[in-house]
Amino acid sequence: MIILLTGTPGTGKTTISHLLAEKLGCPLVDINHLVDEKHLYTGLDPEKDYKIVDMDALEGELFKVVGLQNAVDLKKDSLKDSTKSSIKASTKDSIKSSIKASTKDSIKSSIKASTKDSIKSSTKDSIKSSTKDSRNDSSKDFSINPTKNSCIIIEGHLSHYFPQADLVVVFRTEPTTLSERLRKRGWKETKIRENLEAEALDICTWEAHQIHQEKVHEVETTTITPKEVIDVILDIIDAKKSFPVGNIDFSGYLGG
Ligand SMILES: Nc1ncnc2c1ncn2[C@@H]1O[C@H](COP(=O)(O)OP(=O)(O)OP(=O)(O)O)[C@@H](O)[C@H]1O
Ligand SMILES: [Mg+2]
């Protein structure tokens, strides 16, 4: 079972993934750490301390990690044509510049003017990874053979781009609470704002949904404890509960 844990920075991926890996006895891959370790980046954004991740190289490494060597064929099979073409059609810079350039008002009006589908189709960026914040070493063993492990957890805000998954959990945090978490990290205001806007616009959710459809669940980490989040995920795995995409709406954060 391949479990992808994704979400805007600060929503709790690293915190939860360790607990979940322990609970399930699964190996854990931290994408931030993998990117650093294998140098899967093409450059740096000096303004924001982002590494510009080489997405093809990352995907290749992840296929190796999960023991699926025929990456290209699997990728072709797993990505539906529509997803492929929309991903191809969208450029790195499109969402980046829209987020950069957007004021509250412009985002608001773009939401008004667009359906979620149109937001969905414009959301392939996140080719940036805040790897500076990679704080744990638990995923150093990248050679994982799925025949020996019944599950594997891959965590990081780019994890949902990996086309193979049985379950994708997008962690969500109400932007005001998320803002407090990110401020504690000492991040620049522009970087914090960019991430809060991404959270309010459901960017990770819609990107994940484009690729993984009904395998995606959204779990809110705003008020519940990490342990309670684990219980929710276990219920999803056991098919006792379901948290499909579309039930969380933080767009009010962008103004009324
Ligand atoms: N229910 C919760 N689940 C997860 N984290 C929570 C929860 N409630 C509060 N937190 C806090 O939120 C913070 C989440 O940080 P964490 O590093 O896990 O986020 P992340 O999603 O991995 O971020 P990044 O993408 O930058 O790596 C931690 O300080 C954690 O203690
Ligand atoms: Mg993390």
UniProtKB/TrEMBL annotation:
Residues the entry annotates as binding ATP: 10, 12-15, 185
GO BP, sorted A to Z: ribosomal small subunit biogenesis; rRNA processing
GO terms, molecular function: AMP kinase activity; ATP binding; ATP hydrolysis activity
Residues that span the membrane, as ranges: none
Keyword Kinase: yes
Residue ranges, compositional bias (Basic and acidic residues): 122-140
Keywords: ATP-binding, Kinase, Nucleotide-binding, Ribosome biogenesis, rRNA processing, Transferase
Cited HAMAP family: Adenylate_kinase_AK6
Role played: Broad-specificity nucleoside monophosphate (NMP) kinase that catalyzes the reversible transfer of the terminal phosphate group between nucleoside triphosphates and monophosphates. Has also ATPase activity. Involved in the late maturation steps of the 30S ribosomal particles, specifically 16S rRNA maturation. While NMP activity is not required for ribosome maturation, ATPase activity is. Associates transiently with small ribosomal subunit protein uS11. ATP hydrolysis breaks the interaction with uS11.
PANTHER family listed in its UniProt record: ADENYLATE KINASE ISOENZYME 6 (PTHR12595:SF0), POS9-ACTIVATING FACTOR FAP7-RELATED (PTHR12595)
Family: Belongs to the adenylate kinase family. AK6 subfamily.
Name of the featured protein: Putative adenylate kinase
Taxonomy of the source species: Archaea, Methanobacteriati, Methanobacteriota, Methanomada group, Methanobacteria
